[in-house]
Amino acid sequence: MPGTALDPEIAIAISGLRFGYGSGDDILALSELNVRASQRAFVYGPSGCGKSTLLALVGGVLVAREGVVAILGENLSVMKSAARDRIRADHVGFIFQQFNLVPYLSVVENASLPCRYSRRRLQRAVDAHGSVEKSAARLLSALGIGEELRSRRTTDLSVGQQQRVAAARALIGRPELVIADEPTSSLDADRRREFISLLLSEAGRADSTVIFVSHDASLATHFDVAIDLGLSNTAPEPSNAA
Amino acid sequence: MLHNFGNALSLVFKSLLNRRATAILTVASIAVSAGLLSIVDRVRTDTQTSFANTISGTDLIVGARSGDLNLLLYSVFRIGNPTNNVTWSSYENIGGRPEVDWTIPFSLGDAHRGYRVLGTDLGYFSHYRYADRRPLAFGEGGPFTSATEAVIGAEVAERLGYDIGRQIVVSHGLADTSFLTHDEDPFTISGILARTGTPVDRTVHISLGGMDLIHTVGGADRVAPPVAGYEPEEITAFLIGLKSRTAIFALQRYVNEFEGEPMSAVIPGVALQQLWGLVRVAEYALLGVSAMVVLASVLGLLATLLVSLNERRREMSVLRSVGARPGHIFALLLSEAAMLAFLGALSGLLLVQLGILAIRQFALSEFGIQLSVQLRAFDLYVLAGILGIAVIVSIVPAWRAYRNSLADGLTVRL
Questions:
Q1: A55 and B411 in contact by Cβ < 8 A?
Q2: Does the residue A242 lie in any domain?
Q3: Is residue A5 part of a domain?
Q4: Mean pLDDT value across chain B
Q5: Are strands A177-181 and A92-95 parallel, antiparallel or unpaired?
Q6: Among residues of chain A, what percentage have pLDDT more than 70?
Q7: Relative orientation angle of helices B313-321 and B326-367, to the nearest 10 degrees
Q8: Which CATH number covers residue A209?
């Protein structure tokens, strides 16, 4: 399978993956993990089971020691870092646990940020709504960030509001893949449910595949597939501790 | 890749604005250092120009034997005191040589309210040249026509509020307020010279006869000597203009080897060069210190950037996640440093410009230094130099941010 043409219908295809930092032991080993295009996948497991490492590998920021990490049919493991950066900029939107926003940029500027670095997403945002700003405004409104909130400093927004701005940023320019790394861990139960359903409906509208990572297995009900990374990761346990 | 430069610049600008307190302090410290460097060099070159402008068209200065510099300083710049005098017969001997076009006798040693008094003859007003061979001009009135008349420089008139016809008293010696004043010998101001920006502005000119008059002890039986043709026993120094400059060295040798009495002849330009040689050490020391201040301010910039790196790790990985490459992170930090350095240097240079406009008049009247207002090449060097050093130095934090952004991946846990 490595090196051969990959199925573009598979949004994420991982096989024979081994990863560790520097010369240390492997901390992540996956024999196989696939997510189909437009699927909504839930990855869960306890802290330190390698969730964030997996996302950094899928985002092309880290490189596997061995095996294939392919997104949209492109094997990141054999690419140069500039090419991986290009893929990430054009095709992947990220939402993190917290501190998602650049403090010195406005709400709309934060939501538009990917369009600064990706011509493709810029073009798609302009095609969809006439301009990047309009595209950002529409996404923000859909995610419950009204006009009065948009004029505030990002640091004056609540954590929940900040996460919605981050979601808008992940979705602008309709990337094929949206990766969310515990985005709801600082939200209460009601807000959590609301955030997930808004995110998934907007991702559906953008036709984006969603990978949602959490340690909270109870959220799995919102998703098409659930992957228990704690079980899938075959790297030796002791070195997993973060 | 960023889609346009303005976009990238706005990111740099907003990032700096977000940390405006440290940014302003950094800019201010760079501004002070840039301004210091600029002003030191400006005063240095303007002082040289002012000195060089004081005398023009004079081929030789002759006085009693002394150092070249000493002779130049006391005769032309009215700084320091003559060691000895020259006899009138020597003056006539040298002045009468065929290659000599004109001479101006100088007799110094007295003062009026802190301003030096120069005894000379009418040749002074027709032959003396300053700046680019500009002759002296009268703002009001004309040359002295008797031994009891005086011509004052523009600054003397302005500072002391003197007009034509005013009677003044010359004190013996140079002290500001001398008890031994020659009350009985008042001089009447016959003319005020137009401003020259040289020590002439700070001089009271009287005739050689007038000079002798104030030194003659005696009562009312003294007779005022004539202005023209008066021959004192001694003078302090004299200036020589030649018919042809080719004769300079021959005449200089003739004066230096003069048998009647020990004398020195100096070429003004050569003596000025000696002066520069003397003050160059001090100038370079000042420039060196200023350069160190610039370096210190750039190190301050470096420290600021390094300190900010840790608190910005999260921001950097957010930028990475939205597609910024490590090169973008590197460029962002480098641009921030360049922006701070540029704003600092520019505001420093502008401050100097404003400062010069403010103190120009003071520097001219107090020190006789004409400060230039126009932008100088050196200022551009300062700007470019500070920018260059800042960019080079900030490679360190930029590289660290670059390394961090590779190592941190997308998840920094702070």
A1: yes
A2: no
A3: no
A4: 87
A5: parallel
A6: 94
A7: 130
A8: 3.40.50.300
On the CB side of A7, CA atoms within 13 Å amount to 11
- Best probe of the A interface among B318, B328, B405, by most A CBs < 10 A, is B318
| Interval B224-270: pLDDT, tens | 777 778 889 999 999 999 999 999 999 999 999 998 899 999 999 99
pLDDT in tens, B82-113: 888 999 999 999 999 999 999 999 999 888 88
What residue ranges do the domains of chain B occupy?
Answer: 5-51+278-408, 60-266
Number of domains chain A is built from: 1
Give φ, ψ of B166 to 5 degrees.
Answer: -70, 140
Which pLDDT tens digit goes with each residue over B253-264? 999 999 889 999
Q: pLDDT value at position B28?
A: 95
Using CB atoms, which residue from B18, B323, B325 is nearest to A114? B323
Asked whether the beta carbons of residue A59 and residue B410 sit closer than 8 angstroms, the reply is yes
Contacts of B409 in chain A (CB under 8 A): 52, 56, 59, 61-62
Kindly report the nearest CA distance between residue B398 and chain A, in angstroms: 18
For residue B375, give both structure tokens: 């932008």
DSSP3 helix / strand / coil % (chain B, rounded to 5): 55, 20, 25
Q: What residue numbers bound the domain in which A168 lies? A: 39-62+81-237
Confidence check: pLDDT of B219 > 70: no
Residues of A in contact with B316 (CB under 8 A): none
ipTM: 0.84
**Domain assignment of residue A19, yes or no:** no
Three-state DSSP class for A106? coil
Nearest chain B residue to A87, by CA: B323
